[in-house]
């Protein structure tokens, strides 16, 4: 009894050792069983697994040797360096692990006929049966070729059930009717899609008329399922489509209709390795595995997804140049150097210098900059001053400064000193750097800006266009002309600026716009009384008389028109725009010049002869008088020919005693009939075709001034009241018998460039008599 107890005590350690060994075996077996679904690279090497068959890379879960593939669905049969799917003749050309796709080749179906419509014995028949894989419906197309073809495909799912059929037909009567642009549009070639989940296909091809009458260019019909994008139709295929096989894409997955969530619950069969992610495969095909972001390799091997070293490739990381890149598992980190802070990334806060470093850099830069500044300041001062002087000298010469100095040197000292030379900065400040909102007018010679000088003086600044040499002469001419004019009814020239690329003139600013606006704007015209019109005409005539007779050197304005007559707040006339004016030597009565001016105002004699005289201004002034009387525009191209020219139309009405038929309706004619008639007669004489028969501007000015004086001599409190008979005699005789052809004309004046000689020369030669 004692001996048996002793033996039990001796066996207890041995029993405990056996139990411990059993537990260790169980644990090891459990651990090994958990990695069966996702083996390691070393385990596959130990099993003698190869990964190449011909040119095809074959890696797990696919394999060629026993225990080297996941299950029988992934077996690749390598026969004579040619990979086939399972033990079939289905050739494999590519395995796409991350997409869960497999590219194979499959035969086409073909039926051919002779000229008599008899079937030839060279038929081909296409069929395909898959086990757990499916034909991709999104990346394959059913295709048929031929001009007498009916192609169809019978399909079933991978379990052999749910049989469906589809197809398409293609017909054409001649080779030329088939488009040869690579598309399969239904003529000579047709295509259609296939449904999802197809695991079996049988392709049939038939003919409607056995290719009778088309065998010479299309003896056969073809049908097949092909990868989308791998087939491009050509009309040569109608004669002979020599391909025996076409590529097809298959979908595959791990498990049988198992989702990722369900697969992860059973780690003994879960096929995805470390550092990988699970994705749902096509419907009914389970799941596929892909390496996680920052990893690459085979996601179906336990240690197949390797970390990507983003730091080794600048295209894979976003670290700034001055930072350091540190690779981490599945990612990387950017580090800024010492004395910098930030995340070091181009898409983040980058690297910013710390305060101490910034202070050191600033001090270093300041010392260096100070040294450079001190050593080069005197050179910079000399060079900049020389450059500035050269630029000013260049613009001064370019803008006719030498010519202006030469012209001004001939003038008296007070005249020279009256013209101020403005700086570029002064005029920039005055116009708010030539803001478009400051523009008050545009003309043939430039743009006019409203400016406010430092002393709050409001001025008009005329900025000329970029000019050629002849235009520079006109600019200088305007300065010289205006510098010699001292008249209350002429826009005063205050100065000029020659420091810019284009020259600038500075005038006094006239606030109330142009006479043209007040005549032809209905609202403004109502405020322009006959008294104001008569006075404006007299003041303008006085200016022209002064230019022709009283100036030290006679001046011809050459562009008299209502837009060049400005009005101030009291409707005082101010004649402007002397850009086209000419000084007339005292020993000459006329000048030969290139015709300049504005259509409608131009002297017809000047247009024909190119001989400019003072009488040319007289004609233009006559047109302005007619504008004041009639309120009509000088040219109206939308009117009948006889009414297009205001001057000709006015003379026609005067000749036919119909003056009051064209009087501006804004003018109250009661009590001023005699004045209107006298002014109209003055205008008529100014518009005589022969210049020598026109009055001088001095005569015109005196007559208009006489009318005003005559009006002023009358007592303002005495009102002449004509009896009915006298009124009827004075007004009725003039206003009765109005004709409808005397109507208002409207058109904008047009700068010369239009042939108006014919219009003017059609005036009656006795119109001024």
UniProtKB/TrEMBL annotation:
<protein>
    <recommendedName>
        <fullName>Protein kinase domain-containing protein</fullName>
    </recommendedName>
</protein>
<keyword id="KW-0732">Signal</keyword>
<keyword id="KW-0597">Phosphoprotein</keyword>
<feature type="domain" description="Protein kinase">
    <location>
        <begin position="434"/>
        <end position="718"/>
    </location>
</feature>
<dbReference type="Pfam" id="PF13947">
    <property type="entry name" value="GUB_WAK_bind"/>
</dbReference>
<dbReference type="InterPro" id="IPR018097">
    <property type="entry name" value="EGF_Ca-bd_CS"/>
</dbReference>
<dbReference type="InterPro" id="IPR001245">
    <property type="entry name" value="Ser-Thr/Tyr_kinase_cat_dom"/>
</dbReference>
<keyword id="KW-0812">Transmembrane</keyword>
<dbReference type="InterPro" id="IPR000742">
    <property type="entry name" value="EGF"/>
</dbReference>
<dbReference type="InterPro" id="IPR001881">
    <property type="entry name" value="EGF-like_Ca-bd_dom"/>
</dbReference>
<dbReference type="InterPro" id="IPR013695">
    <property type="entry name" value="WAK"/>
</dbReference>
<dbReference type="InterPro" id="IPR025287">
    <property type="entry name" value="WAK_GUB"/>
</dbReference>
<keyword id="KW-0418">Kinase</keyword>
<dbReference type="InterPro" id="IPR000719">
    <property type="entry name" value="Prot_kinase_dom"/>
</dbReference>
<dbReference type="GO" id="GO:0005509">
    <property type="term" value="F:calcium ion binding"/>
</dbReference>
<dbReference type="Pfam" id="PF08488">
    <property type="entry name" value="WAK"/>
</dbReference>
<dbReference type="InterPro" id="IPR011009">
    <property type="entry name" value="Kinase-like_dom_sf"/>
</dbReference>
<keyword id="KW-0723">Serine/threonine-protein kinase</keyword>
<dbReference type="InterPro" id="IPR008271">
    <property type="entry name" value="Ser/Thr_kinase_AS"/>
</dbReference>
<keyword id="KW-0547">Nucleotide-binding</keyword>
<dbReference type="InterPro" id="IPR000152">
    <property type="entry name" value="EGF-type_Asp/Asn_hydroxyl_site"/>
</dbReference>
<comment type="function">
    <text>Serine/threonine-protein kinase that may function as a signaling receptor of extracellular matrix component. Binding to pectin may have significance in the control of cell expansion, morphogenesis and development.</text>
</comment>
<feature type="domain" description="EGF-like">
    <location>
        <begin position="307"/>
        <end position="352"/>
    </location>
</feature>
<feature type="transmembrane region" description="Helical">
    <location>
        <begin position="357"/>
        <end position="383"/>
    </location>
</feature>
<dbReference type="GO" id="GO:0005524">
    <property type="term" value="F:ATP binding"/>
</dbReference>
<dbReference type="GO" id="GO:0007166">
    <property type="term" value="P:cell surface receptor signaling pathway"/>
</dbReference>
<dbReference type="GO" id="GO:0030247">
    <property type="term" value="F:polysaccharide binding"/>
</dbReference>
<dbReference type="InterPro" id="IPR017441">
    <property type="entry name" value="Protein_kinase_ATP_BS"/>
</dbReference>
<keyword id="KW-0677">Repeat</keyword>
<feature type="binding site">
    <location>
        <position position="463"/>
    </location>
    <ligand>
        <name>ATP</name>
    </ligand>
</feature>
<keyword id="KW-1015">Disulfide bond</keyword>
<dbReference type="GO" id="GO:0004674">
    <property type="term" value="F:protein serine/threonine kinase activity"/>
</dbReference>
<keyword id="KW-0245">EGF-like domain</keyword>
<dbReference type="Pfam" id="PF07645">
    <property type="entry name" value="EGF_CA"/>
</dbReference>
<keyword id="KW-0472">Membrane</keyword>
<keyword id="KW-1133">Transmembrane helix</keyword>
<keyword id="KW-0067">ATP-binding</keyword>
<dbReference type="InterPro" id="IPR049883">
    <property type="entry name" value="NOTCH1_EGF-like"/>
</dbReference>
<dbReference type="Pfam" id="PF07714">
    <property type="entry name" value="PK_Tyr_Ser-Thr"/>
</dbReference>
<keyword id="KW-0808">Transferase</keyword>
<dbReference type="InterPro" id="IPR045274">
    <property type="entry name" value="WAK-like"/>
</dbReference>
<dbReference type="GO" id="GO:0005886">
    <property type="term" value="C:plasma membrane"/>
</dbReference>
